[in-house]
Amino acid sequence: MGHVTSKSYHQLQQRLDKSPQGAPASEALFKILETLFTEEEAKLVSKLPIKAVTAKKTAQRWKKKESEAKKILDILADKGLMLDMFDGKKQTYILAPTMAGFFEFSLMRTDGRFDRKVLSELYYTYINEEDRFLKEVLAIDPAIARVLVNEEAIQPKYMAEVLDYERATHVIKTASCITVGTCYCRHKMEHADKACNMPQDVCLSFNIAAKSLSKHGIAKKIGKRDALKILDKCRSLGLVQIGDNVQNKMAWICNCCSCCCEAILAYKRLGCNMNIYTNFYADVNQDKCNACGLCVKKCPVDAIIIVEENHKKYAKVDKDRCFGCGVCTRFCSTKTLVLNKRKKRNFVPKDSFERFIMSAINTGKLQNLIFDNYQLWTNEVMRRLLAFILKLKPVKRRLATQQLQSRFINKLTKTYYSLNKALMEEKPDYSHPEMK
């Protein structure tokens, strides 16, 4: 007899799948949810909107007293399944995404709240053995993550063109709060007997996320000086900095190895289709290269090989595969490897809200953000209607909106198509300095 999952966990999976990131159903996922959430928690969380919500609003949706709803929300935040935020006036809560989110947070805990071996094995099955979840997550546009260039590898002539949000040091120096926690990827691989010997306590979180993780003992609060030391140590070990794909108020930076990191493994396995590269690529001076092969070993994405032409061996970089981390340049003994600037600058969303809205549009899930009371049949009707209208061709869309006589729907569809047009033309109409 196969695994039997209660209705509450099916409802929670469906709620998670309404988010742009999604959470495709599988037996491994249901076992993960059963490990993290009680059946009652799963039932309640399935009713939460995608956006942040207060205890008062949650109580109304759950049909409970505000004090009771707050107690449940605080328990979920303490487990690392939700993030709680306080802006000085009111407390709000938001369900953490799967990645980077409660998958990672559950393994960052060291207090025995969860069985980390069991979770690691389930995560390995869901993410590393099954394909659907990872393919969907890492194909989202804009990407949820991006590589940060090693600032020390930048040629002096390009230093002025490196923007603040591309510098890990700037992210650290401007953060309002910083925490360090256990590396989810390497800890997971340790339980699968596949981990390397790289350090695990190097996962950095910042700002609102860091405050919540620190408050609940999921990660340790540290100062900026300690964070910079961790960064220096990881760079000296050849680890790659991969972080939150936003310009302002980044939530996290991971120090990644090529053998354990989900993003790097997927980048190699899925044919480097992920748009996570920096604005640089590695290049080599063929005449000076001694073909020692160290760069081949250090490249995290296998973008460098040794070739021989006219009786001369040298390193050759696949510029399409290279994601511009700069690790190879750090270990090049002859200093013939350098980072050159790409012709086209990679677009980075202004903040997490902008990225979330754009990804909702591109995954066809915008309606789930607007009509987010999943208990009301009227919201379900409007979600289906909006999803249908947004997929119509312009002529049929005009007929539909005329029949509906709805200014709201018309405005939404205009916004949707104007954004999509900008995205398709790769000329987003935003006021970022690099887009001017």
Radius of gyration: 23 Å
Number of DSSP helices?
20
Number of domains: 3
Q: Sheet with the most strands?
A: 6 strands, antiparallel
Strand order of the largest sheet: 3-7-8-5-4-6
Helix content: 40-55%
Percentage of residues in DSSP E strands: 5-15%
Shape: elongated
Number of strands: 12
Give the CA-CA distance, first to last residue.
Answer: 61 Å
- Please identify the structural class as seen in this structure: alpha+beta
In terms of quaternary structure, what is this? single chain
Mean pLDDT: 85
pLDDT < 50 stretches? 422-436
Keywords, separated by commas or semicolons:
single chain, disordered C terminus, Arc Repressor Mutant, subunit A, 3 domains, 436 residues, two-stranded antiparallel ribbon, 12 strands, 13% strand, 20 helices
Structural summary, described in words:
The protein is α+β, with helices and mostly antiparallel strands and 436 residues long. 45% of the residues lie in helices and 13% in strands. The chain has helices at 7-17, 27-36, 39-45, 55-62, 66-78, 98-108, 116-129, 132-138, 168-173, 184-191, 207-215, 224-236, 262-269, 294-298, 327-331, 352-362, 366-370, 377-391, 394-404, 407-424; strands spanning 82-86, 91-95, 145-148, 178-181, 203-206, 220-221, 240-244, 252-256, 280-284, 304-309, 312-317, 337-341. The strands form 4 sheets. The chain has a 6-stranded antiparallel sheet with strand order 3-7-8-5-4-6. Strand 10 and strand 11 (312-317) form a beta hairpin. The longest helix has 18 residues, at 407-424. The model is unreliable at 422-436 (pLDDT under 50).
